[in-house]
């Protein structure tokens, strides 16, 4: 009788559907954020989310971190619901085998996701110092899936489960540090903010061509709208170089940015992301090549741009 009561606990019956539901919500959320990143649009969130989702921590090996999060949630969804799709009456043995195979994988997956989310929460508090509802929700969902995995079935050896969890947590943490270190995020000195609200330091040099284009853009009253935390804005500055950046017509839109002109940015309805250029009445969204800016502005000076092969990207963030 005791065994039967344990088998019919409601949490044992509903743990998999609940885990599957949480994973589906997580996959939808991270999928949405991945789409906004790849399509260069703005997520429905405040400035704090923009800073987090466009920070150095939000990409791994050039791909959005949310893409990997979406894949992780989809994996958890498949593992959770796969046995439920098998008819328990006609294929009882197959269902039992699937449950036996997937429970340990659910434990590994939920433990790893919880540890990684905990690391990101640490980064959010200590480095980014912003509030990101998406990140917090993901951390809560990862923790919930871990708890449901632990209490959602009768594990034969709780002590062994605890030991395995500790090993998995250590591996996940070391792997996290390793990935970010290999990607250049940990210990990256060139991303340090020299002046509060000023953004990362520009490390490239300017030639006569970059300086001439920057002065020309200023003379025709062109404007580059950006935010100090926007990575594509930094890419644009890198194309101009240190000397030319001092001459270019840059408008800081972040409220907490250096020499902020938020009111001016808010008065421009065409401004939907950063960076955005306003040149001769035309609005150009995203990081622009120097050749494109030269053609749009009618620049006729030297055009042997030394930084023309630098990084480029689309608009990011919101004003």
Automatic annotation (TrEMBL):
One of its GO terms (cellular component) is membrane. It comes from the Bacteria. It is found in: Membrane. SUPFAM superfamilies: Thioredoxin-like. The keyword Cytoplasm does not apply. PANTHER family: VITAMIN K EPOXIDE REDUCTASE DOMAIN-CONTAINING PROTEIN, VKC DOMAIN-CONTAINING PROTEIN. This is Putative membrane protein. The lineage of its organism: Bacteria, Bacillati, Cyanobacteriota, Cyanophyceae, Leptolyngbyales.
């Amino acid at each position: 009788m005791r065994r039967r009561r344990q088998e019919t606990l409601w949490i044992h019956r509903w743990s998999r559907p609940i885990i599957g539901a949480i994973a589906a919500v997580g996959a939808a959320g991270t999928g949405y954020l991945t789409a906004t990143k790849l399509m260069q649009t703005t997520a429905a969130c405040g400035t704090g989310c923009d800073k987090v989702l466009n920070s150095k921590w939000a990409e791994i090996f050039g791909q959005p971190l949310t893409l990997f999060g979406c894949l992780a949630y989809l994996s958890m969804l498949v593992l959770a619901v796969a046995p439920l799709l098998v008819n328990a009456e006609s294929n009882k043995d197959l269902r039992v085998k699937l449950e036996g195979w997937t429970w340990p994988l659910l434990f590994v997956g939920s433990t790893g996701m919880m540890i990684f989310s905990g690391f990101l929460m640490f980064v959010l508090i200590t480095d980014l110092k912003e509030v990101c509802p998406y990140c917090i929700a993901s951390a809560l969902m990862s923790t919930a899936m871990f708890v449901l995995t632990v209490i959602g079935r009768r594990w034969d050896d709780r002590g062994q489960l605890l030991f395995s969890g500790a090993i998995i947590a250590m591996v996940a943490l070391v792997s996290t540090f390793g990935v970010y270190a290999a990607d250049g995020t940990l210990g990256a000195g060139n991303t340090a903010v020299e002046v509060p609200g000023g953004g990362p330091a520009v490390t490239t040099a300017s030639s006569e061509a970059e300086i001439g284009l920057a002065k020309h853009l200023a003379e025709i009253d062109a404007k580059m709208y950006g935010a100090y935390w926007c990575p594509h804005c930094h890419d644009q500055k890198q194309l101009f170089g240190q000397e030319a950046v001092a001459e270019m017509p840059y408008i800081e839109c972040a409220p907490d940015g250096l020499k902020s002109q938020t009111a001016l940015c808010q008065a421009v309805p065409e401004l939907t992301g950063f960076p955005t250029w306003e040149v001769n009445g035309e609005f150009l969204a995203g990081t622009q090549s120097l050749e494109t800016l030269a053609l749009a502005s009618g620049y006729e000076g030297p055009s042997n741009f030394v930084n023309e092969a630098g990084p480029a990207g689309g608009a990011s963030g919101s004003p």
